[in-house]
Input
Amino acid sequence: MNYLDLYNSGELLRRVRTAYARLKSCDLCPHDCRVNRLAGETGVCRSGALPRVASANVHRGEEPPISGTRGSGTIFFSNCNLRCRFCQNFPISQFGNGEDVTTRELSARMLKLQRQRAHNLNLVTPSHFLPQFLAALYLAIGEGFRLPIVWNSNGYERVDALELLDGVVDIYLPDMKYVAEDPAVNFSSAHGYREINRRAVREMLRQVGHLQLDEEGIGVRGLIVRHLVLPEGHAGSRETLRWISENLGGDTHISLMKQFFPAHEAGQIPGIHRKITDEEYEAAVEALEEAGLENGWVQE
Ligand code: SF4
Output
C-alpha cells in the first residue's frame, strides 16, 4: 500500500478529514493541548490552522540515502512541539520564523521540489502540521506528485497520529533524544519522552520496516533513527542504543550525531553549556559497537 493507493481508494481524503477534525481540540501530539486551532487558539506548538513554512529547498546535508546525488527536497516547518533550549534552528522552531501558507501553496512547493529532481520530499519537524501536510499531499497527487516521503521528526509523537501516516510515509527519520525524565523536561519540556518516543519509533518500524535501498543506494523505504550525543551523558546514549538493538533489532540504521553545540539558551544552562568532547562521542561509538548496531553512520 502506498499513498497513490490511498488516494485512489478515497482513504487519503478520509484521513485528511479525520486529521483536521483533531485540530478542533488538538490532540495531535503528546502535549494534548485541547485547543481549537481551527478557531485560532494555539497550544505548546504555537501553531494555528495554516501550515507555517520557513523554507523549501533541495538540501544535500542529510544522511547519504536521503540526500543521494541530487539532494533531498526539504521543507522546514516553523514552530515545534518541543522546546529544546539548545535548538540549533531556534529562530525557526522557537521564534516561528517563516510564513503562513495555504495547503494549496504547500502543495505547489512540494511539486516544485519534484520538478527540481529531488530524490524525496523531506518534511522537517512536521508533527504539529500533520493534517495540513495530508491535505497538501492530496492536492499535490492530483497534480502529479510522486516523490517518496521522509518524515523527519523529533520523535515526540502519538501512535494514533502516526497511524494516519501508515502507507503515506516511506522513510521515517525520528530522533531518539533522551532516556531520563529530568533532561527531557528541563531541556525540551518533553514529559514522558522515553516511553512516548519508544512507542512512536516501534510504530514507525511496524509501518515501514528496516531501511531498504535501491541499486544506487538511495533510500526507498524504512527507518533511520537519529541520536544526538549530548554532554555529560544527558542523552542516555548507551541505554538508547542497547534498547534499539534489543527491541528494534540489530539491522536498525542509526545516525549517531556529534554536532551538538550550545545554541539558543544552552550557554547559560549547566550540563549543556559546552560542546561534547571527542571522548564523549567515542564512548557513544563504542556503545554502538557493543550493541551490535552495524548499519548507519558515525561522524569523523
Ligand atoms: S500539535 Fe500543538 S496544539 Fe496540538 S497537542 Fe501538540 S503542541 Fe498542542
About this structure: The radius of gyration is 18 Å. Residues 3-298 form a domain with the TIM Barrel fold (CATH 3.20.20.70).
